[in-house]
């Protein structure tokens, strides 16, 4: 990541988020057009999302870190692995990329480029689900980097694939994606009025994961000076 300047990293974040959202929204439109079975439609939405995450993280990770998610960017800013300026730029480009992704998906299916969603997604259960989804995502990323860096793309893709099905919210886990999904009145949409609750839950879950994993992933002896006898 250090070998790429900020404009290239921002381009990777914007392009990656756009392709991610285009996949989420586009696969939802396709699934809904092919079946009236909601469970089958959800499966048709899930598999492409997990698959594209593996691809996007693999190809853009070496450039920008492949966040594609303001909650993930927040975590790396709190870890001081990203400056505040760079983090703010990441978030702006992620949101912009997500909106473009919705527009791309709509254009491919001959729909209005932007269409405010009417799909209700609110309530304590769904907010809890989003907190859990974001918590698990950040925990997966941090533990993956710590123990199996080369497998992070697969770990994230598989986690989101699973979280689509074990969370009542279908695991947005991403404020930029959530914002983009308010602009599609299709299978993957969310009402704009329901957005604040989702974003708050996602950020809380992400920060909670950082707090726990910062302790959990630190080996007992890390940060403790070695006794003189042990150095001999």
Distance between the termini: 38 Å
Radius of gyration: 18 Å
The residue fraction in helices comes out at 55-70%
- Largest sheet report: none
What is the global morphology?
globular
Low-confidence stretches: 224-232
SS-based class = mainly alpha
| Number of H- or I-type helical stretches | 9
Oligomer: single chain
Short description:
This protein is mainly alpha-helical and 232 residues long.
Description:
The protein has 232 residues and is mostly helical. It is built from 9 helices and no strands. The N and C termini lie far apart (38 Å).
List the helices and strands and how they pair.
Elements (H helix, E strand, L loop, with lengths): L5 H29 L3 H27 L5 H9 L5 H25 L15 H24 L4 H15 L8 H7 L13 H22 L11 H4 L1
Which tags fit this structure?
single chain, 232 residues, mainly alpha, 9 helices, 0% strand, globular, disordered C terminus
């Amino acid at each position: 990541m250090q070998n790429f300047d900020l404009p290239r990293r921002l381009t990777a974040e914007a392009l990656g988020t756009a392709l991610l959202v285009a996949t989420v929204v586009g696969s939802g439109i396709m699934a809904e057009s092919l079946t009236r079975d909601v469970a089958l439609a959800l499966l048709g939405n899930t598999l492409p999302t997990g698959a594209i995450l593996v691809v996007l993280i693999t190809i853009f990770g070496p450039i920008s870190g492949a966040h594609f998610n303001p909650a993930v960017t927040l975590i790396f800013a709190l870890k001081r692995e990203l400056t505040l300026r760079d983090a703010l730029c990441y978030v702006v480009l992620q949101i912009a990329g997500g909106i473009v992704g919705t527009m791309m998906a709509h254009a491919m299916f001959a729909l209005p480029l932007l269409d405010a969603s009417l799909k209700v997604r609110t309530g304590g259960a769904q907010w809890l689900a989003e907190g859990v989804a974001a918590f698990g995502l950040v925990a997966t990323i941090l533990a993956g980097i710590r123990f199996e860096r080369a497998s992070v793309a697969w770990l994230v893709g598989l986690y989101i694939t699973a979280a689509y099905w074990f969370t009542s919210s279908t695991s947005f886990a991403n404020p930029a994606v959530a914002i983009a999904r308010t602009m599609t009145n299709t299978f993957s949409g969310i009402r704009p009025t329901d957005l604040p609750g989702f974003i708050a839950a996602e950020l809380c879950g992400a920060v909670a994961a950082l707090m726990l994993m910062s302790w959990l992933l630190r080996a007992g002896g890390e940060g403790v000076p070695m006794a003189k006898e042990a150095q001999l």
